[in-house]
Design goal:
Blueprint lengths: L3 H21 L8 H7 L1 H17 L5 H13 L2 E2 L4 E2 L4 E2 L6 E2 L4 E2 L4 E2 L4 E3 L11 E2 L4 E2 L4 E3 L3 E2 L4 E2 L4 E2 L8 E3 L4 E3 L19 H24 L24
Parallel strand pairs: 1-4, 2-5, 3-6, 4-7, 5-8, 6-9, 7-10, 8-11, 9-12, 10-13, 12-14
Antiparallel strand pairs: 14-15
Length: about 250
C-alpha cells in the first residue's frame, strides 16, 4: 500500500520530470519548477500517472482509471494506469499522446505531440511497444504492437513503426524504415527532422533513372530519338544547417 517510501519515490520522480522539461524544452528554460508543474501538461500527465499506477499496482479499484480519465480530459494525454514509465520521460506539448496498457517506456525518453504507443488487433498479453532508454519519437509517429525500440533509437515525425528498431537507428516513413543519418549515430533528444533520408523518394529516383536508361536503349535499337528525360526536382534541400537550430 501507499506509504512514506512511496510518497518519497513519487516526489523524486516529480523532480526528475521537471528537470527533464528544463533540459529538453527551450520554452521551460528560466521558468520556475512550480510553474512547470502547474502549466506543463506533459509533467501533469506524468504526475497523474505516477499516482494512478501506484494505486493500480496496489489493487485499488476504479480510482486508477478515473485518475487516468481526468488526466486525459485536462491534458489531452492518455496513459493507461498499467503502463510502466521510466525516469525522466519528457512529453513535449503532449496533445494526442496515447500510451497503451502493456507499454513499457525506459529512462530519459522524449515523446512529441500525437505519438501513439498502441496495440494491434485483439491479442492478449504483451501487445504494446517497449521503448528503450534515450529514445526520441517525433510528432505524430505511431508505434504499434509489441515491438522494441532499442537504446538511442529515433523515430521521424508521422512514421509508422511495425517492427523492432535496432539501437541508435533512425526510422522514417510508413511503414518505417531504419536508416542512418550521414553515417552518424547521434545520442540525446535532439533530432534534425528536416534532413532525414527519404527511402521512398530514393527508390522512385532510382526507378526513374532505370526507366530513362531503358528508353535510351530502346531509342538506339529502333533508331528513334529518345524522349527527353523528366526534370526531377528535389522538394527540399537535403544538406545544410538545421533550421530548427540543432
Amino acid at each position: 500500500m501507499l506509504g512514506l517510501a512511496t510518497l518519497a519515490r513519487v516526489a523524486g520522480e516529480i523532480r526528475r520530470d521537471i528537470a527533464a522539461a528544463h533540459a529538453r524544452d527551450p520554452a521551460a528554460r528560466g521558468v520556475g519548477p512550480l510553474e512547470v508543474l502547474a502549466t506543463w501538461p506533459g509533467v501533469q500527465a506524468l504526475l497523474a500517472h505516477r499516482v494512478a499506477h501506484g494505486l493500480y499496482d496496489s489493487g485499488v479499484p476504479l480510482a486508477p482509471r478515473s485518475i487516468a480519465m481526468l488526466s486525459r480530459a485536462m491534458t489531452g494525454i492518455e496513459i493507461h494506469p498499467a503502463a510502466r514509465i521510466g525516469r525522466g520521460l519528457f512529453i513535449d506539448h503532449g496533445t494526442g499522446v496515447v500510451i497503451g496498457e502493456t507499454a513499457e517506456v525506459g529512462h530519459d525518453v522524449t515523446l512529441y505531440q500525437g505519438v501513439t504507443l498502441g496495440g494491434t488487433g485483439f491479442a492478449t498479453g504483451k501487445r504494446h511497444p517497449t521503448v528503450g532508454d534515450n529514445v526520441t519519437i517525433g510528432s505524430g509517429a505511431k508505434i504499434l504492437g509489441p515491438v522494441t525500440l532499442a537504446h538511442g533509437a529515433k523515430v521521424g515525425a508521422n512514421s509508422v513503426v511495425l517492427h523492432d528498431v535496432p539501437a541508435n537507428a533512425t526510422v522514417v516513413g510508413n511503414p518505417g524504415h531504419a536508416v542512418r543519418v550521414d553515417g552518424r549515430r547521434p545520442e540525446g533528444p535532439d533530432a534534425d527532422w528536416v534532413h532525414l533520408p527519404d527511402p521512398v523518394a530514393d527508390a522512385m529516383k532510382s526507378l526513374g533513372q532505370r526507366v530513362s536508361a531503358l528508353e535510351r536503349a530502346l531509342a538506339e535499337a529502333t533508331g528513334r530519338e529518345p524522349e527527353p528525360a523528366a526534370d526531377v526536382r528535389p522538394l527540399r534541400p537535403v544538406t545544410g544547417r538545421n533550421p530548427a537550430g540543432g
